[in-house]
Recover the amino acids of this structure.
């Protein structure tokens, strides 16, 4: 009756790929398990060597899941003083070059035993369910919480026939999330409206960034120069991450920003094009390879510029605020959470961008108070998550018998559930047909893991494995 609540956190990426869906779910699992009241399992994709070589930076690869897990735990232990009490398991994944994403292979609900199938947290629920074929999430788990990280519609709009693709994707996202999630948390209003959703930023920052901010605060109190460098931006170097907008702003307002140097840090598919464009426009921009934002190199920068409007909530913006810097960003729903911070300044047009940038470079940021430092922490983010996901309420309901209903009771809720079940059957049928999967964009032959992935993960080979669909 008093067993611990079990939470399985499923995500679509893993370290050493430094993306938000690798880092933030890792911290979420850590802090959900911190007080020992819950049993937490983090479920992440395992990539075979050929995909690791494409996805992971600095030629980092792992020969087995055990080595990969050791790397992740070591990375996390270096960044927190929290005792790591969560479990970590892998599901088979494949990297899609077209989508620049890792997609699940097979029925990943099977990674959690029926005895522990209590609460599932789907980090990027649409991504995890587009091609899902197997046990229905709502049947496997008592409660399914989706956390929407990515504004896929905005990314798709920038591709060929983008608005048509976006229109179709909007309805697919609504469909799969309605089928598979009881509750959806949208990190900001930058995402599409979704069934049973609420807007709340449930992400925090690595505590090391808060420590840097404290040091800067003490330096400012002692009258020491806390920030000796100018402006910078760090992010994956692809056009859709704000680089196009930034170069356009710097080009259009070169006269107003005369003498202003901006340093860009990032790796990505568009790195060469970004560098070529900056040279052609003759901008006062230095471009460097990507680095961990915790690199001491960044500590002394005063101003963080982030023109991106494709993020849902930008992790690096939160990190920059935690370090005590001034942030210049677009007046966009993705930045609504940050507007409460005195050091965050938003612009509506290029003229305001230039004015705010010059002003920020000419004065020191405001010291970060304990109140605002707390709001950026993972402790506060976890409290917000527990509240909006209603986890404590669920724990209570789990031990209280449900109210009996009259025989043959029919309600509008029951009718809606019937329609939902029929919709789930349709999705499960379509997602089980190889030709249909390929037509919708799935990676070929990903209904089941191949022999190599089975060997690496210790799974039963496909030819001897029975898949049941519900």
């Amino acid at each position: 009756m008093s067993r611990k609540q079990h939470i399985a956190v499923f995500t679509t990426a893993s370290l050493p790929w430094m993306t938000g869906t690798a880092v933030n779910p890792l911290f979420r699992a850590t802090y959900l398990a911190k007080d020992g009241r819950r049993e937490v399992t983090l479920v992440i994709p395992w990539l075979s060597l050929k995909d690791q070589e494409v996805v992971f930076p600095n030629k980092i690869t792992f020969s087995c899941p055990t080595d990969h897990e050791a790397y992740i735990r070591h990375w996390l232990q270096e960044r927190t003083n929290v005792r790591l009490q969560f479990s970590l398991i892998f599901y088979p994944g494949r990297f899609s070059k077209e989508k620049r994403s890792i997609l699940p292979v097979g029925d990943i609900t099977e990674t959690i035993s029926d005895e522990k199938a209590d609460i599932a947290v789907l980090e990027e629920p649409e991504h995890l369910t587009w091609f899902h074929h197997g046990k229905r999430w709502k049947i496997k788990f008592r409660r399914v919480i989706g956390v929407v990280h990515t504004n896929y519609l905005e990314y798709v709009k920038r591709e060929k026939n983008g608005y048509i693709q976006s229109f179709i994707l909007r309805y697919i996202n609504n469909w799969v999330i309605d089928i598979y999630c009881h509750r959806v948390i949208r990190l900001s209003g930058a995402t599409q409206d979704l069934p049973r959703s609420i807007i709340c930023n449930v992400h925090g920052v690595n505590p090391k960034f808060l420590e840097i901010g404290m040091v800067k605060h003490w330096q400012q109190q002692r009258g020491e120069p806390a920030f000796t460098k100018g402006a910078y931006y760090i992010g994956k170097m692809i056009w859709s991450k704000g680089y196009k907008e930034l170069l356009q702003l710097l080009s259009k307002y070169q006269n107003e920003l005369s003498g202003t140097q901006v340093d860009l840090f990032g790796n990505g598919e568009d790195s060469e094009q970004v560098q070529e464009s900056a040279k052609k426009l003759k901008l006062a921009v230095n471009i460097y390879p990507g680095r961990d934002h915790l690199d001491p190199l960044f500590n002394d920068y005063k101003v963080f510029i982030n023109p991106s409007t494709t993020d849902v909530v930008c992790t690096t913006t939160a990190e920059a605020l935690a370090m005590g810097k001034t942030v210049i960003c677009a007046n966009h729903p993705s930045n609504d959470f940050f507007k409460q911070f005195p050091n965050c300044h938003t612009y509506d047009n290029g003229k305001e961008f230039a004015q705010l940038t010059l002003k920020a470079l000419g004065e020191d940021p405001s010291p970060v108070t304990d109140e605002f430092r707390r709001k950026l922490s993972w402790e506060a983010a976890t409290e917000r998550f527990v509240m909006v996901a209603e986890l404590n309420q669920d724990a209570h309901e789990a031990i209280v018998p449900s109210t009996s209903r009259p025989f043959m009771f029919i309600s509008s809720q029951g009718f809606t559930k019937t329609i939902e079940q029929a919709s789930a059957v349709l999705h499960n049928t379509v997602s089980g047909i190889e030709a249909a999967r390929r037509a919708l964009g799935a990676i070929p032959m990903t209904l089941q893991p191949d022999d190599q992935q089975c060997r690496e993960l210790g799974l039963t080979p496909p030819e001897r494995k029975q898949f049941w669909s519900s």
The CA atoms of residues 397 and 451 lie 42 Å apart. The first helix runs from residue 20 to 32. Residues 394-410, 464-470 have pLDDT under 50 and may be disordered. The radius of gyration is 23 Å.
